[in-house]
Amino acid sequence: MPDVGTWAKLAAYVVCIGLVLEFAHRLYWQLNGWAMNSSASAGWRAFFSAIFAAIPLFAVLLVTGAFCIYIDRQPLYSLGLQSGFDSFLMFSEGAAVAFVAVTFLFLAGYSIGWFKIERASISGDNFPAFCGGACDFSLAAVFEEVAIRGYVFSVLQHSWGSNVAVVGSAVVFSLLHLIKHPKIPLVFTINAFIFGILTAQARLITGSLWVPIGLHFGWNFAMGPVFGLPCGGRKYEHGLVISSVNGPEWMTGGLYSPDAGVLGTGALTVTAAVMLALMPVG
Question: What is the number of domains present in the chain?
Answer without folding.
Answer: 1
